[in-house]
Design brief:
14 strands, Rossmann fold, six-stranded parallel β-sheet, binds nicotinamide-adenine-dinucleotide, Dihydrodipicolinate Reductase, domain 2, alpha/beta, globular, eight-stranded mixed β-sheet, about 35% helix
Amino acid sequence: MIPMKQYRFALIGCGRISKNHIAAAAANRDIMELAAVCDLKPERAEKKAEDCLQATGKKPAVYTDYHKMLKEIPADCVAIATESGYHARIALDCIRSGKHTLVEKPMALSTADAEQMIREAKEHGVTLGVCHQNRFNDPIQQLHKALEDGRFGRLVSGSARILWNRSMPYYQQAPWRGTWAQDGGTLMNQCIHGIDLLQWCLGGEPDTIMAMTGNYLRDIEAEDFGAVLVRFKNGAIGMIEGTACIYPKNLEETLSISGETGTAVIGGLAVNRVETWNFAAPAPQDAAVKKLSGTDPKDVYGSGHNALYRNFITAIDTHTEPLVSGTEGIKGMKIILAAYKSQKTGLPVKFDDLEFSTLDMTHADVKVKSIS
Ligand SMILES: NC(=O)c1ccc[n+]([C@@H]2O[C@H](COP(=O)([O-])OP(=O)(O)OC[C@H]3O[C@@H](n4cnc5c(N)ncnc54)[C@H](O)[C@@H]3O)[C@@H](O)[C@H]2O)c1
């Protein structure tokens, strides 16, 4: 087999999640090199360049202006890890300069922006990927294989429960969090991974979304709790319970899928542990899968970025679609935007027709008062 070429990456945004991108560069150093890092805050970019030197033996160039970086660094690919509200603008600049573009979740904050990113990536012949790294967790991969093998029979229902805690210091540390212009609430920021997994496992074709969301405890614009129902085109129903209000700390992120001949529950802190694995017809891998009930990852981000980067690069190299392409990445985001629209209007929302943005929530009062 011909060895893959080394793909040169540039990273835009050197904040909290960038450590996973540096770790991915180190884990995949046989097929990639982080050639440059960029942040508006030079000390952040410098720190990540040093971290990368420690992790890979090579120090990336440091930039504060990504336009300059795109002109000067002959990168094949760009990873974007800025505030969510900037993803679309920066991604379109990267796509238009011919770079394969890997964007943190959510890929954008409006259906129009996400659709434009997908359209323009296709027009410019570049690959677009979205960081839903939990799809690469071993138990999730096994669950999806069981679905592909038809082991669940007719799908009936599934649930995503994201019972986490985000306290005020988390929001104060980066004031863009919890705002409609830059982020959205806990559904868009924290729960989108679980929502992506739920839609991926229940057939990926949502039909109708109904939601009740609200802001209970945190002093932010957007919701800190959401309950969402999704009817899929295959008839299955998905239920989402997503919250940043669990006392006193992160409790669980659990995905459960239930069909005529199978039930699987993957839980733990961040969908890493097999809790239930029951199928009518046994398969040779079952004993090994049931053992995937070990320890939780160090933090809720897990280490899925390593596998996600490898999948993204392999897709570019083989002219195939990455597992989490733009077309896939838009789905979780769109379910959440539909939930926001449902909260705003009090009505069920059709997935296919949806045009909505977090900015459409700007004047929606989501503060929850007691109903007396
Ligand atoms: N995949 C995951 O599990 C995961 C986890 C956490 C965050 N995220 C996502 O990653 C993104 C970043 O989150 P974070 O918590 O790291 O945020 P952060 O606030 O810690 O970091 C964002 C960084 O981007 C920089 N930036 C903004 N505009 C820029 C520009 N034009 N050029 C260069 N740098 C720029 C900021 O200066 C800041 O340092 C968000 O979209 C978030 O939703 C994903």
